[in-house]
UniProtKB/TrEMBL annotation:
<feature type="domain" description="Helicase C-terminal">
    <location>
        <begin position="165"/>
        <end position="321"/>
    </location>
</feature>
<dbReference type="InterPro" id="IPR011545">
    <property type="entry name" value="DEAD/DEAH_box_helicase_dom"/>
</dbReference>
<keyword id="KW-0547">Nucleotide-binding</keyword>
<dbReference type="GO" id="GO:0005634">
    <property type="term" value="C:nucleus"/>
</dbReference>
<dbReference type="GO" id="GO:0003676">
    <property type="term" value="F:nucleic acid binding"/>
</dbReference>
<dbReference type="GO" id="GO:0006289">
    <property type="term" value="P:nucleotide-excision repair"/>
</dbReference>
<dbReference type="InterPro" id="IPR001650">
    <property type="entry name" value="Helicase_C-like"/>
</dbReference>
<dbReference type="Pfam" id="PF09369">
    <property type="entry name" value="MZB"/>
</dbReference>
<dbReference type="Pfam" id="PF00270">
    <property type="entry name" value="DEAD"/>
</dbReference>
<protein>
    <recommendedName>
        <fullName>Helicase C-terminal domain-containing protein</fullName>
    </recommendedName>
</protein>
<keyword id="KW-0067">ATP-binding</keyword>
<dbReference type="InterPro" id="IPR055227">
    <property type="entry name" value="HRQ1_WHD"/>
</dbReference>
<dbReference type="GO" id="GO:0043138">
    <property type="term" value="F:3'-5' DNA helicase activity"/>
</dbReference>
<dbReference type="GO" id="GO:0005524">
    <property type="term" value="F:ATP binding"/>
</dbReference>
<dbReference type="Pfam" id="PF22982">
    <property type="entry name" value="WHD_HRQ1"/>
</dbReference>
<dbReference type="GO" id="GO:0036297">
    <property type="term" value="P:interstrand cross-link repair"/>
</dbReference>
<dbReference type="InterPro" id="IPR027417">
    <property type="entry name" value="P-loop_NTPase"/>
</dbReference>
Amino acid sequence: MKKAFHTDINVSIYDGDTPREDRLWIRDNARLLITNPDMLHVSVLPCHSQFQRILSNLRYIVIDEAHSYKGVFGCHTALILRRLKRICSNIYGCHPTFTFCTATSANPREHVMELAKLDNVGLIQNDGSPCGSKYFLLWNPPLHMKKEGGSQGSSVTRRSSPIVEVSYLFSEMVQHGLRCIAFCKTRKLCELVLSYTREILEVTGKELVDSICVYRAGYIAEDRRKIEADLFEGKLCGVAATNALELGIDVGHIDATLHLGFPGSVASLWQQAGRSGRRAKQSLAIYVAFEGPLDQYFMKSPDKLFGKPIEHCQVDSHNPKVLGQHIACAAYEHPICLQYDENHFGSTLDSIVTTLKDKGFLVNNPSGPFSSTMWNYIGPEKNPSQTVSIRAIEHDKYKVIDKLNNRLLEEIEESKAFFQVYEGAIYMHQGVNYLVEEFDLSSRTAFCRKVDVKYYTKTRDYTDINVLGGDFAYLPACKTNHLKTTAQANSCKVSTKWFGFHRICKSSSKILDTVELRLPPYSYDSEAVWIRIPRSAKLAVEERKLEFRGGSHAASHTLLNILPLHMMCGASDLGTECVNPHETRGMPERILLYDKHPGGIGLATQVIADSRLFRLCE
């Protein structure tokens, strides 16, 4: 940046990876600070007096990739920006100008106005970035006949594994000298694609085996930075990546992108495909379909994909739960004044302050100049921002250690650790298999060693959804003349229990062995929405000698698969209630969906808010 602008101003990165010994120098000397909402939230705003030099002279706030601030993360970011504007104006007397850079958004002006609570925004729609022509290919894995149930079994038609198909495509790309990113929806899929691609290259291009790797969340900062640098400098030909590479990071010229399954929104698909062809050269994007109904829908009707409008970015800065968290944080940073701070936090400020007072978080300041309207933070936490997670990310993490050299391989969220690094699990890191030999719950550490095995492991588990109430979720405007059932929404407790795991052959997918597994249950609070299935429907199904519970379960998964067509969500954001043999209580006859993010992020209740889905209740 210094070279680009021919200037000697001090430009510094201030994020979670910045060494503590460098932070004091940055606060005292930096002219241009590159940071993120997380650091504003937990460091800059709570300790704003340490940043007095910067905040007193702050003239511009530039927010890149503004379209990524949506959903629950966007809600938190919007309130962090309000806190920043409040501190700047109320304490340091400055009113910085906002500049937003965005792409892949249907409503950029409205979105950023809500994001930063701005009255007006000028929109510049010139795309000056160099971009060549792009070929976009839809790739449906071929169909094969397969026998089930032995020699006397029936023949079924199945598609080839899309994971294997992507791996062959990935290997072809790097063998032809094309720099490539293979986008996968989960960390495990990234590891599998890398493993399979390396197996292919061992036969077809052995010198290229080490020219590809995985880039995803969970890796330690040092490893991530090295991968970014190697990709940018051309030392790597390609990576299998999650959406961590969808935006933001400059990885140099990319020739092709592969997309393993629909990523959850058209905006994300175009954003990923836009990583290639950024230097006025031709580029290629290949979308490889899974066998699920949503991917097959797009394969059979490409016009529905290419003609589908980009989704609107939505930010709900009035969510009372999130608003209460940030008002407590704001009061810690500087006393809340009802007279002036309503401009920042909206008309519900008074009621939320009252709620926080009743909970023992705020107290009235009787000695201030506006004694009746000034509120100080007195809550139990020394710094309330430390307890507010803005990305729905879990704080409790497990370390994965290579026993051979005591090297830290990864840090995994608690909920994922119980699925991935239990004792006896095969854990994958950069395409290499590790056997977990010890899983220490007290120290939150998994110890593993490299192994060469031809199987993978999969947990046997079940999840119970215990609904804690039942408020009607219909909107007042919903008019149905002949309701046959009810739709409801409320908080719930999600509890997962593990009772074993399978060892499964890689080549045949046959179960080789079944092992018992005892882990403590993992529980979290969330939100659920459900539709009661009327008794008349159950009787009609049973009269036809059909399986009622299996049918209702299939209907739940059908609903999960079509939701990304109507909402900005991914397949991993929502879950459904599944039949299991370990139920300990009677299960009501219902179709239930729940937020898979601890605390809930509002997606479940959005399902009922969509009028097109009300037809399920008629």
